Amino acid sequence: MIKEFIQGLSITFKHLLPGHSTTVQYPKVKLQPSDRFRGLHRLVPSHDRAKCVACYLCPTVCPAKCITVESAENEKGEKYPRVYQIDLLRCIFCGYCVEACPVEAIEMTGNYELANYHRDDFVFDKQRLLNTK
Amino acid sequence: MVNLTIDGTQVTVPKSFTIYQAAEQIGIKIPVLCYAKKLLPFGACRVCLVEVEQMKGRLIPSCTTPVTEGMVVTTSSDEILKVRKTVLEFLLVNHVIECPVCDKGGECELQDLTYELEVVTNRFVGEKFDHPTDESNPFIERNMNRCVLCGRCVRVCDEIVSYGSYSFVERGFETKIATAFDRGLDCEFCGQCVSMCPVGALLPRPFKFKARPWQLKHVDSVCGYCGNGCTVTFGVKDNQVQTIRFNDKNGVNDGNLCIRGRFGYSYVNSDQRLTRPLVRKNGELVEADWEEALTAVAEGMNRGKGTGIISGARLSNEEFLLLKEVAAAAGTTNLDHSGGECYKGLTEGVQQVLGLSASTGTFPQVEDADVILSIRSDFYETHPVFGMVVNQAVKRAGAKLLVVSDKKGKFTKLPNAETLLGKPGTEVNILNAICAVLLESGKAVTEGVAGLDELKQSLTDYAPARVAEQTGVSVEAIEAAAEQLAAAEKGAILLGYGLSYTANSRELGIAAANLALLSGLADQDEAGLYVCGEKANSQGAIDLGILPGESGLGVQAMLDAAARGSLGALYIVGEDPLTSFPDGAKVEAALKGAEFVVVQDLFLSPTAQAADVVLPAASFAEKDGTFTNAERRIQRLRAGIKSPGEALTDFAIFASLLEKLGAAASAATPGETFAGLGRLNDAYAGIDLNAIGPQGVVWGGEHLQPKVRNLVPVSGREPLTTRYQLITGSALYHSGTTTTHAKGPLEAVPEPYVELSREDAAELQLAEGDQLRIKGNGAEIRLKAKIGARLPKGVLFAPNHFPGTGLNRLYKGEAAVVVELNK
Ligand code: SF4
Ligand code: SF4
Ligand code: SF4
Ligand code: SF4
Ligand code: SF4
Ligand code: FES
């Protein structure tokens, strides 16, 4: 019994040795999230505009009701989102919008550093979402 | 009755049923695409295939196959589903699937079926349609790349609207729906085809990309334009009426609407709406608050010399009741409505003869009438959806249509229609002649009818030969009409009246009612005589007596008195008399002569500009209440949106004004007020507001029997013999003056015009669109010429909707105005 006890503890001690710590020294060190991570949204551009065709599926599916879309007709007669806005304070990062989009116009990036000072700064409009990397 | 078994359930249905209808009756839903309830079966899509045991081995379309005794039907099996799926795959081969940007997405029947039958891949590939989109008109976008060739648009436009815009062209894969010479759609833009299209091939342009169907809040209300009383369902989002939704469940119109109801809603969202009360200070109308404005109104009405109240006919019944209370509180019996100029006369005439002041039957009863006589009005212009009912009677039930009018119209063109085209103002003469023939031939119903001898005496002046000479209608036509009416088993006489034409109203009412009695139409169990007021609640105004009280003045007398300076205040609610009343000069003099003028309206109309106080009112889309339509149907209005700015409903304004006048409204809300309507008219007593369901309540029941049977002698008039005469009236596309603030109707008919015949145009060397100077009654106006085949030589027609034309300088209420024309 004592043997198992030592065995277990040795693992614990091994981790105490330098170079074996799992704590990441954020913000000096930043982790690369996985591809499937659901962080800040990004609107995919296509040519000179957002790829989004303002179909209203994402605001419809969004359980937090934080997406605002207003469709309009552009000079070419195409449907486009005159307004596209996500209120991140209400977003629950479920990714349903990404799943719902029929034209793959919205994605979620690995960006998780979303803290800010003002409520207004959490409202991401079309331009900000297009600028997301 | 026929017995059959569907999916193991026994069902008994009438012989005329199809398998689809029989299944529907027991709640079995067979998918359909080309079938539509109100259209004749067509069988184009094959989505509704079912299996019938007796015809083993092949699948048959349930929507076109009539039931037969002992049929055993299976509506769903693996094989049936497989075939249905294949049908859909075929449809999707060349369909351009762009649901994300297609406004139909979310309520598309093709999308729904595809989802339901789980068509996730297509085994067939083919070229996609590549037709250009038809955007040649401002109302309807036609994207034939999404068309599934169900033919619903073709059929509705022919069977119900009778315009016939579309047909199938080409063959096989090339088949498409096209308009004449493929030039793009140019029609009367009723939008029936849009409401029928199962996919996104026909879409309302004003609603393009505005919202998804599921985002709209649906509010069922009643169209605020004409007396037809169609149900309109607002699609509301962001406190705006975004579109009018298809609804064939409510009301009497079966989902049919005219351009005004479907595309004329935009005025409620107009930024020209009045949003604050205005009070005249130092000669200028300036914004004020309600307190100040209403105090001014109450003071103005109390200044002595008396008040005259003129109301429009688009107020709700509840508002009418409160208006009467306002009149009482102001101590005046000078109360009248705009229909007092026209529709009132009609109802008074009918009252004298039949003891009724409303239509005897309902609209649906006309659907299977066998003889229909339409007097003066082409209902396609005044009450378009009733016009569609007549069309169905003619086309489906084979009714004979007789038209007595001074101009041709759409009715004239219907199959089986016979037009008795008389000189303007001679309709009474023609009706009298028909009565004379009936009496002469012994075919008249005279039992229990009073006044026969006097009538016979007076009709000696209206022998067919003489009337034929006077009016230009042939003796044979008059005799044939009399014969047909006498033979009718279910006949209908239709008479529509509005402000745009006020002459002869009482006379015509009497003549038509006489004819209804003599031909036996008044004693049928259904249909009979239809008197149709112009506006949404013309009938309500008559029923509730928005008419001069004891020793009170009517509209004309009020205007005269005001012009003489003997009326202190004029309170004008929901009407623009300066534009719409006959004899504009008189109205102008009255507005000048009255010491104090209040106008309550949606817009700063020419009349409002002359007022001392202007009160901003709410549109029909912003209020609760009831309207009574031309067939006595009481239907509920429901507020879909909030009023802009500080505008209030007429109800709320009257209630506050009552307080200012030291009285109190008898009830606090329109809902509570409804019960009080019984005090004004027995027919409304005992109707429970909550019992007014989707189909409304027809007061007095589906059919009214005459209360009295008094034939009344009535004289017609000698026609004018001058070279040119002008008549006024209503154009389809517009209704009253309100539509001149609505985008849709304005896009169809943007400006005033005068219509004349080709012959006259040639003689005057006039081309379409040329300016024509029209002189008459000491005034001269200029209007754009429109040349057509509708009018007989020498007759001109001008619609009366547009402010600023000065048309009512010429037109002073006569049947036809003597005019001189110059280029
Ligand atoms: S689902 Fe896609 S295309 Fe539709 S509105 Fe959202 S981002 Fe735009
Ligand atoms: S018509 Fe229906 S299936 Fe076709 S693109 Fe539009 S919504 Fe989609
Ligand atoms: S809008 Fe009316 S008239 Fe025009 S094509 Fe459609 S159904 Fe026919
Ligand atoms: S346009 Fe619409 S209604 Fe007409 S045939 Fe095509 S799918 Fe049917
Ligand atoms: S204007 Fe008259 S006919 Fe047209 S939709 Fe309205 S109520 Fe119906
Ligand atoms: S619905 Fe029966 S064939 Fe189209």
UniProtKB/TrEMBL annotation, chain A:
- Going by the record, the broad EC class of this enzyme is translocase
Q: Which organism is it from?
A: Geothermobacter hydrogeniphilus
GO function terms (MF aspect): 4 iron, 4 sulfur cluster binding; iron ion binding; NADH dehydrogenase (quinone) (non-electrogenic) activity; quinone binding
Q: Which PROSITE patterns does the record cross-reference, listed alphabetically?
A: 4FE4S_FER_1, 4FE4S_FER_2
**UniProt-recorded name of the protein:** NADH-quinone oxidoreductase subunit I
Quaternary structure (record): NDH-1 is composed of 14 different subunits. Subunits NuoA, H, J, K, L, M, N constitute the membrane sector of the complex.
Q: Report which reactions are catalysed by this protein.
A: a quinone + NADH + 5 H(+)(in) = a quinol + NAD(+) + 4 H(+)(out)
Function of the molecule: NDH-1 shuttles electrons from NADH, via FMN and iron-sulfur (Fe-S) centers, to quinones in the respiratory chain. The immediate electron acceptor for the enzyme in this species is believed to be ubiquinone. Couples the redox reaction to proton translocation (for every two electrons transferred, four hydrogen ions are translocated across the cytoplasmic membrane), and thus conserves the redox energy in a proton gradient.
User: Which NCBIfam families does this chain map to?
Assistant: NuoI
Which cofactors, by name?
[4Fe-4S] cluster
List where this protein forms a coiled coil.
none
* Cofactor binding: number and manner: Binds 2 [4Fe-4S] clusters per subunit.
Domain (4Fe-4S ferredoxin-type): give its ranges. Answer: 43-72, 82-111
Q: Which HAMAP family match?
A: NDH1_NuoI
Q: What is its main location?
A: membrane
Annotated EC? 7.1.1.-
Q: Which GO terms describe its cellular component?
A: plasma membrane
Which amino acids does the record list as binding [4Fe-4S] cluster 2? 62, 91, 94, 97
Q: How does it sit in the membrane?
A: Peripheral membrane protein
* SUPFAM superfamilies, sorted: 4Fe-4S ferredoxins
Homology family: Belongs to the complex I 23 kDa subunit family.
> Which residues take part in binding [4Fe-4S] cluster 1?
52, 55, 58, 101
From TrEMBL, chain B:
Name the InterPro entries on file.
2Fe-2S_ferredoxin-like_sf (IPR036010), 2Fe-2S_ferredoxin-type (IPR001041), 4Fe4S_Fe-S-bd (IPR017896), 4Fe4S_Fe_S_CS (IPR017900), Asp_de-COase-like_dom_sf (IPR009010), MoPterin_dinucl-bd_dom (IPR006657), Mopterin_OxRdtase (IPR006656), Mopterin_OxRdtase_4Fe-4S_dom (IPR006963)
Domain of life, source organism: Bacteria
Gene from which the chain derives: nuoG
Annotated GO MF terms? 2 iron, 2 sulfur cluster binding; 4 iron, 4 sulfur cluster binding; metal ion binding; molybdopterin cofactor binding; NADH dehydrogenase (ubiquinone) activity; NADH dehydrogenase activity; quinone binding
> Can you say what this protein is called?
NADH dehydrogenase (Quinone) subunit G
Xref: Pfam families: Fer2_4, Fer4_Nqo3, Molybdop_Fe4S4, Molybdopterin, Molydop_binding, NADH-G_4Fe-4S_3
In its keyword annotation, does this UniProt entry include Kinase?
no
Q: Where is the 4Fe-4S His(Cys)3-ligated-type domain?
A: 79-118
- Coiled-coil residues are none
This protein's cofactor list reads: [4Fe-4S] cluster; [2Fe-2S] cluster
Give any single GO term for biological process: ATP synthesis coupled electron transport
Catalytic activity reported: a quinone + NADH + 5 H(+)(in) = a quinol + NAD(+) + 4 H(+)(out)
- List the record's Gene Ontology CC terms alphabetically: membrane
4Fe-4S Mo/W bis-MGD-type domain residues: 216-272
Q: Which UniProt keywords apply?
A: 2Fe-2S, 4Fe-4S, Iron, Iron-sulfur, Membrane, Metal-binding, NAD, Oxidoreductase, Quinone, Repeat, Translocase
Q: Gene3D superfamilies in the record, alphabetically?
A: 2.40.40.20, 3.10.20.740, 3.30.70.20, 3.40.50.740, ADC-like domains (2.20.25.90), Dimethylsulfoxide Reductase, domain 2 (3.40.228.10)
> Which ranges carry the 4Fe-4S ferredoxin-type domain?
138-166, 177-207
